[in-house]
Design a protein that fits this description.
The chain is mainly α. Helices cover 59% and strands 8% of the residues. The protein has a domain of 109 residues.
């Protein structure tokens, strides 16, 4: 089997896409610990351990929402920003599931075979050509979208860190982009 085989490229793209999503989730952990005034690199803190022990993304998002609503420094302005980001995260998570739960399929198109991934494979849907099938380009587009979502979460981390009065080194790594505050007019809101 050669690395240039179509299915090998698809498998590699799936792995890269799932890796991109894992970075989104890592940044959500950073958001949670910064909300609790812990440094982004306080890797041994029990709050981080507790958050990372929760497998369900929906539960993790609920933990962030509950923290924002209970925290006096955040409750007046941040929950509205969070609601928009949470909606985007959940939509993207469904797209992540399609990449994570698939069967490799082939379709004859003209004189050539095209390899695709089919999320949540069912024979009837495959035979009827109903439902979603993703090609290499579509998987790579999702990877790019997940990396962009990582940057949006980082913007929220910076916003929360500033609202909590923390120093930038507490919530950002050297080399991260300094984003505009979410409350500023024209700032990207989710």
């Amino acid at each position: 089997m050669s690395d240039d085989e179509p299915w090998v490229r698809l498998y590699a793209a799936v792995g890269e896409c799932l890796h991109a999503w894992s970075i989104v989730e890592a940044e959500l952990t950073t958001l949670f610990v910064v909300m609790h005034e812990r440094a982004w690199n306080d890797f041994d803190h029990p709050l981080r351990a507790a958050f990372e022990a929760v497998i369900s993304l929906e539960a993790r998002l609920g933990m962030i929402k509950a923290t924002a609503e209970a925290d006096a420094a955040l409750r007046d302005s941040y929950p509205a920003h969070w609601t928009k980001l949470q909606s985007k995260l959940l939509k993207s998570y469904r797209k992540r599931h399609e990449v994570a739960h698939f069967t490799l399929v082939g379709r004859i198109r003209g004189a050539s075979r095209t390899h695709l991934i089919r999320p949540f494979f069912k024979w009837k849907d495959f035979n009827d050509q109903a439902g979603v099938e993703l090609d290499l380009k579509q998987i790579e587009e999702r990877k790019v979208a997940f990396y962009a979502l990582t940057e949006r979460v980082r913007q929220h981390v910076q916003h929360v860190g500033a609202k909590k009065g923390l120093t930038p080194s507490h919530f950002a790594q050297a080399g991260h982009i300094a984003y505009p505050d979410l409350d500023e007019a024209g700032a990207t809101d989710c």
